[in-house]
Amino acid sequence: MRMLVILHLFALFLLVGLGFYVFVNDPRKRANQTFAAFIAFLAIWTTKDLIFWNFYPRNSTAGWWASASFITALLMQYAMVVFAWVFPEDARTPRRRAAVLFAPGLIFIPATLFGLLWQKVGFDEGRFVIELTPLAYAFVGYVYVVFFFGAIVLFQKYRRYTGTQQGQQVGAIIWGLAITGLLKTLANIALPFFGNYDLLPLSAIFVLPGVLIYAYAILNFKLFSLQTALNQFRLFPITYKVALTIATVAIVSFVLFQIPIVWWAFRNGMDEEAWRRYLVFSVISALVPNLLLLLLVLRTVSRPLQRITLAAVKVAKGAYGTEVDLRKSNDEIGLLASSFNEMSRKMASDIEELRRLNNQLIHAEKLAAMGTLAAGVAHEVNNPLASISSLVQMMRSQEGHSPETREKLNMISEQIQRIIQVTKDMTNFARSRPAAKTDVDVNAVIKTALRLASFDKAFQDLDVETKLAEGLPRVHADEDQLQQVFLNLLLNAKDAMQEMQKPARSKGSVGSRGDEDSSMRVGLAERSILISTSHTGDAVIVRVSDTGTGIDEAVVGQIFDPFYTTKPAGKGTGLGLAVCYGIVTAHEGRIEVTGNAPNGTTFTVSLPARH
Question: Fewer CB atoms < 10 Å away: N or C end of the chain?
Answer without folding.
Answer: C
